[in-house]
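Bench log, entry 3. Co-assembly request; chain sequences pasted below exactly as received.
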Amino acid sequence: MKKQRWRKTKPKMKKWLCDSCSIPIKVIASYEPEYCCRGYKCGCYGLPINPIFCDKCVKELFGEPVKKGGVNLDEFF
Ligand SMILES: [Zn+2]
Ligand SMILES: [Zn+2]
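Structure output for the full assembly:
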């Protein structure tokens, strides 16, 4: 009988540009930007509806993730 080994493989990554500051970042290789339309007369302005941001912009947009001093929810529940 053959032994099957399960190896943890890293997800494939590809280069991308942050949708906010345009610095090069790594994203999951399967990531594809989805567009609403070409932005003509539309609030989307032709930008992807699932934009991807670098760590810095994520912090600026969504705030710092609660880690130090806060309650670790994984341990809490
Ligand atoms: Zn950015
Ligand atoms: Zn649109």
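The chain is about 15% helix and 15% strand. The mean pLDDT is 84.
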